[in-house]
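Handoff note, outgoing to incoming analyst
You'll be picking up this chain. Sequence as last confirmed:
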Amino acid sequence: MNLLLQGDDLNLITTRAVVCPFVKKPALFSRNLARREFHQFPNLCAMKEKAEIQGDEVEAYCQHLDMLYQDFSVGYEDVLGMEVPSWEELMELQTNDELKVKFKNCYQAFWMQRRIAESYPSLWSVVSSTVMDLLTKKRNRLQIATRGDLRLRLTNMNPNVSKLVSPRQSHSSH
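Most recent structure output, in case you need it:
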């Protein structure tokens, strides 16, 4: 975790993505130890095979892991409690030049990348359902990246139709 939280490209979203799994691991390890599943601990696994581990030792390890989980939860509560709005994800996505090129080349492959789903989960879920809706059998040739259909579907802005048509002259019917 220490190495992942270093460097110039670090931001709050990346920090949260690194810290959350780190904090949750002791709780998972404790549950597994309580069930006598030692696969995360090779030394304990070897001791189990030789019958060198006692039940009270396992309980002590579980308690220690539970305390670690509580300490980590308190120590990182600001990062864990941080809610990343989708507009931050969108802003980060818009400023990533590498991903812009991939999006322009093939939007379907772009949204199907595991990296996108993991880095921008809320934005990805909204976009993927919208893309699936746009890409029906009737519209399979739709160029949603170039025509702006996707952008129009994802915006929460409503057009001011009156203002848009006011400079136009109305034509009487023939």
